[in-house]
Design goal:
The complex is a heterodimer of chains A (327) and B (435). Chain A is built from 14 helices and no strands. Chain A has 327 residues and is mostly helical. Chain A has 2 domains: 59 residues, no CATH class; 222 residues, MetI-like fold. Chain A is globular and about 75 Å long. Chain A starts with 17 loop residues before the first helix and ends in a 15-residue tail after the last helix. The N terminus of chain A is likely disordered. Chain B has 2 domains: 178 residues, D-Maltodextrin-Binding Protein, domain 2 (3-Layer(aba) Sandwich); 214 residues, Periplasmic binding protein-like II (D-Maltodextrin-Binding Protein, domain 2), CATH 3.40.190. In chain B, strand 1, helix 2 and strand 2 form a beta-alpha-beta unit. In chain B, helix 16 packs across helix 17. The longest helix of chain B is centred in the first third of the chain and has 25 residues. The termini of chain B are far apart. Classes of the chains: A mainly alpha (327), B alpha/beta (435).
């Protein structure tokens, strides 16, 4: 998460005399340093420092495998050139568009679908645990494994199209090779993969909806649909908002599925995301400076979206937890 | 002294020894001042290459062992890495970190120019002049400003790898000699129900090579050389290459879903399609027979395989005897001990080159070793190379990764119908402007 959290514990030292309190304070800080120190050092070394370095690199024109000397060379300093270039390059703008397309589709399609299936699975029915297990299996798979499996199933003459042909669809599309359908295919695979997680979260949320309310509504004459609409959904609100938050962050950072599943050529035309564009340009086109600028833009977009969402959508859910420290 | 103290002392001693070894390891990156073949101090040479499958890993291991036997003070540690991983990640990072391998694969064109500019490579002219002379003009792409920084052990040209049985079935009696012949062949193969040409456009470069061929045939040698030196792409021949590729695409020569087809991975790749009889031909470099051999069920090079050079385009401005090709070479890092150059000389010796030729992995660069080629198709490739008046390096290699990547992206857009011939050239200019 990106917002700062207060580190100090909320425990007060109690009504003890002043000198002893001070000694207790020193001991407390020693304990904090001892327990939080190593984690803090790792966090600073492997998160904060690289983020700052990426920001520094983004102002330079650097060759692949650059050295510190390159950063000292005034001719390599290019100011905001890399940012201007990124934001005027159609490929990158399309990559941003692809990320937000996946984001919107996730919220519009995966959300309602997950709620519907969760409501279904929340009723007592035969084989309930088997359904729950099956739906959750794709989520357990590593994204790279799932992507490779679909890549092997979806070539023009692959298994999926063979089945479709035998079902009477004479000319099924080349799902991953046709630029006009590749992004939809990717979204379908992502849905297959992450729907189970959404359903699991919704199911957990449904456990928190007291049955008494439904019973009371039933006594008042509300039907099943009305009960769900006026009672279950509103009470599921916090769960839905948390799921949407995770989904938004995931959509903005899609990398593995696209990188593994789609051939580089089709990816460049139709399914590039901000993260794949960053790796393609920073690593494979030998422009670490430009790649760093893309990384910073991706970071800023994710940060802004996350903060705005927390500020407006999750305000009540998080009151006192994240946004404002200790109540 | 009791046994416990002894053990403790031994442990301390061992720890000190390990520490000293570690220190020695750290210092290993700097050039050894007096290391030489006269039985002096121990030298370790690390060697990174791109042979991970087929006969070559074994050949390189043999070469390393033979060199160690002849030079008792030298230890050679050779490792093969996947080609792209080696080129794009491992070597650039090792060079930047100041801890490079001693002997490693050096790619010509844009990459070697950058490495030399950074002072990463050892000039070889004074150390092994005879070896450099033995490969003749082929060493050219590994030279920068008249100095030699790498030596190719294999170099070949591109052409069509085709299924002679399919050609016979379709009634094609002679291999295409002009572009119109090739278009005719495509039509006949289609009529016979055979996919005419496989292209691994999914990996970008195999499709880009089609554009390279049209550019090679449209541009004069002077234009090509000027473009390589100054990134000047103003000549209309560069746009013309794209126009010709568009016209060729109009006859629908490639397999279904070619945009997503990989070049070399699995039976569904373009090489796999040809190797398994599902497509009639593929435009590819001299290594293709070896790749296809790994993609058939019985893991052998198919017997129906034949080779012919890219056909001529009558009336085009380019030199008809110019060809497109590339190779693999080795160079030494600037900090490598002098034994590195000796090992390189041994790798390039006639004996090793003959064994390389006999393995069927590619065309050797030492002329006297070419006779040792056994594969009939590789003999054809070698003949084509010998008859070339000018060999243009793959354009993406020649122009370096940044311009090369932009060019290949533009070409993919062109063949997918979402870009124009002008776009390709504009992208190349834009990318060159960012350097």
């Amino acid at each position: 998460m990106t917002s700062p959290t207060t580190v100090g514990p909320a425990v007060s030292a109690g009504p003890t005399p002043a000198p002893r309190k001070r000694r207790g304070d020193g001991r407390k800080w020693a304990e904090i340093a001892l327990f939080a120190g190593p984690a803090l050092i790792v966090f600073i070394g492997f998160v904060i420092v690289p983020v700052v370095l990426a920001a520094v690199y983004s102002f330079f024109n650097l060759p692949a495998g650059f050295r510190w000397e390159h950063l000292a060379d005034p001719e390599r300093f290019r100011g905001i050139d890399n940012y201007v270039r990124a934001l005027t390059t159609p490929e990158f703008l399309r990559a941003i568009g692809n990320n937000f397309t996946i984001l919107a589709l996730s919220l519009i399609i995966q959300g309602p679908l997950a709620i519907a299936i969760a409501l279904l699975l929340n009723r007592r029915l035969r084989g309930q645990s088997i359904f729950r297990l099956l739906i959750f299996v794709p989520y357990v798979l590593a994204e790279v494994i799932a992507g490779l499996a679909w890549k092997l199933l979806l070539p023009p003459n692959g298994g999926v199209n063979a089945i479709l042909r035998s079902l009477g669809w004479e000319n099924p599309p080349a799902w991953l090779a046709d630029p006009s359908v590749a992004l939809w295919t990717i979204f379908a695979i992502l849905t297959w993969k992450y729907l189970g997680f959404a359903i699991l979260i919704m199911l957990a949320g449904l456990q928190g909806v007291p049955e008494e309310l439904s019973e009371a509504a039933a006594i008042d004459g509300a039907g099943w649909w009305k009960t769900q609409w006026y009672i279950t959904l509103p009470l599921l609100g916090p769960t839905i908002r948390i799921w949407a938050f995770l989904s938004i962050i995931g959509s903005l950072q899609v990398f593995d599925m696209v990188w593994v599943t789609v051939a580089p050529s089709v990816r460049g035309i139709a399914t590039e995301t901000m993260a794949t564009y960053m790796i393609q340009q920073g690593q494979f086109a030998g422009q670490p400076g430009y790649g760093s600028a893309i990384a910073v833009i991706l970071f800023v977009i994710s940060l802004v979206v996350a903060l705005v969402y927390q500020r407006f959508a999750m305000r009540r859910d998080l009151a006192g937890a994240i946004t404002s420290g200790v109540r | 002294m009791n046994s416990r103290t002894t053990a403790r002392l031994a442990a301390v001693g061992a720890a000190a020894a390990v520490g000293a070894l570690a220190l020695a390891g750290c210092a290993g990156g700097s050039p050894s001042p007096s290391g030489s073949a006269d039985g002096g101090e121990q030298v370790t040479i690390t060697w990174w290459h791109n042979a991970t499958s087929g006969p070559m890993p074994e050949v390189w291991q043999e070469v390393a062992e033979e060199f160690m036997a002849a030079h008792p003070n030298v230890i050679v540690e050779q490792t093969g890495y996947q080609n792209e991983e080696l080129q794009r990640t491992l070597i650039p990072n090792a060079l930047a970190a100041g801890d490079p391998p001693d002997l490693f694969q050096v790619w010509p064109g844009g990459e070697i120019r950058d490495q030399v500019a950074n002072g990463y490579l050892m000039p070889l002219d004074d150390l092994i002049p005879d070896t450099i002379a033995s490969v003749g003009a082929t060493v050219g792409p590994w030279q920068v400003d008249g100095q030699t920084y790498g030596i190719p052990f294999t170099f070949g040209i591109e052409g069509f790898w085709y299924n002679t049985d399919h050609f016979a079935t379709a009634g094609i009696t002679e291999v295409p000699e002009t572009l119109d012949d090739l278009k005719d062949a495509v039509e006949k193969l289609r009529a016979a129900g055979i996919t005419p040409i496989a292209v691994g456009a999914g990996d970008r470069w195999p499709a880009a090579h089609w554009w390279y061929q049209f550019a090679l045939h449209s541009c004069s040698v002077e234009t090509l050389q000027e473009a390589a030196a100054t990134f000047n792409f103003d000549d209309p021949c560069w746009v013309d290459a794209g126009v010709q590729l568009q016209e060729f695409m109009a006859i629908n020569p490639f397999q279904e879903g070619f945009l997503g087809t990989p070049a070399q991975q699995g039976a569904g790749s373009s090489a796999g399609l040809v190797a398994n009889g599902q497509a009639a031909m593929e435009l590819m470099g001299h290594w293709n027979a070896g790749v296809m051999g790994g993609l058939t069920p019985d893991e052998t090079v198919p017997e129906f395989l034949g080779w012919f050079p890219f056909p001529s385009i009558p009336g085009s401005a380019g030199d008809p005897t110019a060809t497109l090709g590339g190779g693999d070479g080795f160079g030494c890092s600037a900090s490598a001990p002098p034994e590195c150059a000796e090992l390189l000389a041994y790798i390039m010796s006639e004996d090793v080159q003959k064994r390389f030729a006999a393995s069927g992995s590619g065309i050797p660069t030492v002329t006297s070793a070419v006779d040792s080629l056994e594969d009939p198709n590789l003999k054809l490739v070698a003949e084509g190379l010998a008859n070339s008046s000018y060999v243009q390096l793959w354009f993406d290699t020649e122009f370096g990764t940044t311009v090369g990547n932009a060019m290949n992206e533009g070409i993919i857009n062109l063949i997918s119908g979402s870009g124009t011939p002008e776009d390709v050239v504009q992208r190349m200019k834009d990318a060159a402007a960012t350097l």
